[in-house]
Fold:
Amino acid sequence: MTPDASLTSHPVLVVELSCLAATEAFGRRLGGLLFPGAVIALIGPLGAGKTQLVRAVAEGLGIKNSRAVTSPTFVLIQEYDARLPIYHFDTYRLARERDFVDLGIQEYFEGGGVCLIEWADRVERSLPEEYLRLAFEVTGETTRRLTVQAFGRPYEEIVQRLGAAQ
Structure:
């Protein structure tokens, strides 16, 4: 992991994920740092590992059966019980950003759970001011580069703690 403050004024951490196990370990660490009302925006191409990371975050949040975590592409949202409720969104099939708002997203953002939003770049204007952005770049068959960007103080602390863990 390397910090990179030059990308924006928002703290950034670049994480090289060497394999699926590294992605899972990162996700579990992240899940352990999340708090009620946390919003995580996941961005990246098909097959980049967004749902796999969500599964690992759910493990870090103490979900009993992480195999229950699947892509909500066709249902738009999956809810899971863990230390904090998990709300897993997939905006890939939404025709308009307004469709995301119509799901009642503001109530989820203001609730006591954790919102994980796949394809968040499609609904960026609807995200709260404070959130954590995870952008995946496929660098090889099993390797990924993950750029973690904090928007807001609670997320800056998460980026600092993730960086210190390396």
